[in-house]
Each structure stands twice: as structure tokens, then as C-alpha cells.
Amino acid sequence: MTQYDLIIKNARLVRADEADVKLMDIGIRDGKFSAFAPHLRVEDAREVVDAGGKLAFPGVIDVHQHWGIYNDLREDAVSESRASAQGGVTTGLTYMRTGQYYLNRSGPYADLMPEVLQATEGHSHIDFGFHLAPIEREHIDEIPSIIDDLGVPSFKIFMFYGGHGLHGRSAGQDSFLMLRDGQRYDYAHFEFVMRGIQQAREERPDIADAISLSLHCETAEIMRAYSEIVELRGGARDLAAYSDSRPPHSEGLAITIASYLAHETTLPTINLLHLSSRKAIEAAMMMQSTFPHIDFRREVTIGHLVADISTATGTAGKVNPPLRPREDVEALWEHLLAGHFSWVTSDHACCREEMKFGDPRNDVFAAKSGFGGAEYLLPALVSEGRRRGLPMHKVAELTSTTPAARFGLTTKGQLQVGLDADLALVDDDASWTITAEESASTQEYTPFEGFELTAKVTDTFLRGRTILRGGEIMGVAEGRYLHRPTSR
Ligand SMILES: [Zn+2]
Prior knowledge:
This protein is an alpha/beta fold. The chain is built from 15 helices and 19 strands. α7 (220-233) crosses α8. It is globular. Zinc ion (ZN) is lined by residues 64, 66, 95, 347.
């Protein structure tokens, strides 16, 4: 009997806790890493892959995706997990909620999640899990069973939804969120969601660290007023106008409200999602020093790190919070290099051509929000990060180790014996141009069209199986649903 199912030879290991990248062979058995050594005997393996000196990163854990928001969930599970594998992503956590879009229904998560799992299990090429948003009052009572029975210990609040909807043209919160009985999706609701989550944490001390709340921080009132100002002002209805209609101080204000509510409700595990501007990250750092007892995580997306209102491909770059002017992108990098961000995600939301653009096509206010990007997550971060002096071991920390720890993915997140053999090989001597055509996503356009990168994911392995080889998707969908925390 052979000792390893697979040996990957000559890989430069990128580990969050090692500043130096070391050339090693990787032995994999039963889907787990079983050895890292300068030389493993190829006779001991059923299969051998020569990495030829490429970088080996722990598989990317992209903790902000949106499968099924605009398309059939089952179709997205297939195509968007394939696109994810192209970006070195081996685990995707998708936000899911009741209301319009997604499954377009209301009611308890106990009823919704079996439907979600039926549409995704057996269809994904990467491992996956979900975050759930308590929208209805009854969802707060479901928090304990969402954690224990559904394996979802992470929750979300969309701070602006109650007053603004998804695209800024909500007919009203009742119809958009499908709220019944005069319920409101407002700060009071957010407070009670936090209290519900904190109570669940207190009742589960052994897994409390893995139970957290993520917030999309923008304020409906500010964006409503500024949307009106931008409309009245007239002029181009482009990405610059969209950024003006949802100004950075709307993010900053939402962050301070979220943080104070976390303080008031004693919920310490707060994730501030996709901060897009200098004001947003500065507000988040202010809150960190004001409330040192809150265990914040701060997120930035690859889109906000590589594109601005002038470089993205027009209306294709509409997203919430918006892409910003160049000086905000520079500020995000300043803070990323200073260690102020906890992880980088894609916020992947496949929004196909026919869905994305309104009439006229270049009117940003008529377009839908969101786009894919998981396929560029690791290559773009390595490319742009290297240029700016971000060490590679920090890339591993930001894309795998920290998100795994926060979200209870205890079998993942590091190149370490005993953990799931999830990894991505990156050719850091490649130069290529992003084109939507090469993506496995069904989106068919990208706001990053024409962007030049200097690193490419060539091979991706999920639990020791090749899911991407030489840039081609391999094999069948063997991704598993991850009931979290995974060690239970
Ligand atoms: Zn999102």
C-alpha cells in the first residue's frame, strides 16, 4: 500500500505564520495533509504532481459570496463554484435570506434551508456553507436551532434594507423583505438580533467564538437624501454619481451605530463587511479603540482593492457599497498594509448581462448591484499586493487562516498536517489580462475586463482532489456542505 494518495513536489509553501516561503513536497492522504518535507519519495504515492516552484497557498476561504441571488441557486452552485476554483477558492460561504431575490419567499429558516441544501448539495465544486440574515421577528427565535440544527453560526444584518431596498428603488420594506404583521427592519430589530445572538453565545460557551454577526454598514436615510441630490444635480449617471449617491459618511455613520449597538448588547463578535472608503475604515478603527472589548473583524473586497470609479468597466461596476474614487482605493491599501483588515473576499454575486443592465444601458441608477469576482480573488491580491509590498504570508492569513478561524472552519485555513488538503498553486511569474470570456461564471462580462495581472492560479485542490488543473476545471462536483463549527 502506498503511503500517500498524492504528492505535490517542489511547491513554495505560503503559511500565515511563516514569513519565509520554503520549497517543500506535500504529502496528502485521505483528503488531509499528511506530510510537508524537503523531499518525499515519489514511489510512496499513487499520484505525483510537480508544482515546479509555484507558490502553494492554503485554499482560499471566500466568506462573502451570493449564490442564487439573481439566478437559479442550483445553476449558481455549479457555475459559480467553478469560477471560484479558478480563483483558488476551495470554500465559499454564501449569504442567504428571505425576501425578494434568492428563493423569493418568506417564512422560517427551518423550512427554507432544506430547499437551499437540496439545490446546492451535489452541485458545488468547492466546499460551502451559509450565513443567514434574521429578517423576520420570528427568525430571532430560530437562532439557537439555526446554529445547532442547520450548522450556521454566522448571521447578517443589511443596515440599509429597511428604508432603501437592494437597488435603491424599493417599493417599500414590506414588499422587498416580505415582512408581515407590520414588522419593521430597523435599528430596534438589529438590537434584538444582537441580543438573540449574544444569548446563543452565552448558552454555548464551547463554540461561542465561532458565533458572529456580519453587518453591511450603510444608512438608508443618508443614501436616500444624497440620491435625490445627485438626481437633481443632473449630469452623468455613472459610477462617480453612484458613489456620490451613497457617500462614504453613510458607511461611517452606520459603522458607529452598529458598534454602539454591539456594545449595548454585549455582543463582541462583529464583522464589518466590505468597507469601501477611507471614512469607512477610519470609522471602523475609531470604533475599535472606543470599544476595545469588541472583537471586530474588518472586511475589504478584491473589487474595492483593484478597481475605482474610473477604471472599472462603466455600469458593470455597480455594487454596494459603491466603487470609490482612486484616493479611497489608496486608503484601503494603506490600511490593509497596516494590518487593519482581517480578510479579503470577493462579494461574488453573479448578475448576468440581461439582469444587470437597465435602460439605457449606461444609466447606473437603472442597473442592478453586484458582480462576480471570486475567479480573481487570489491572483489579483497576489499581483497587486506584491507590487505594494504586501508579504505573501499575509495573503494566506487574509484569504484563508483568519476567515477559517472566525467562521468555525476548524478543519481548514492552513497548510498543516491533519487539516483538509485544500490548496491553490499560483504561478507568480505569469502575466495575463482579465477577460470575462475565460471565466467559468455565467455572468459573461466583468467590471475588471482588461486588467493586467502578474500571478495566476493554475491548480486548485479540494481535500486532495484536483478541481482545477492547468487552468481547466476538473472532475465532478464533490464540494460538501459544511455544518459549522466543523469539528463537532
Ligand atoms: Zn455581499
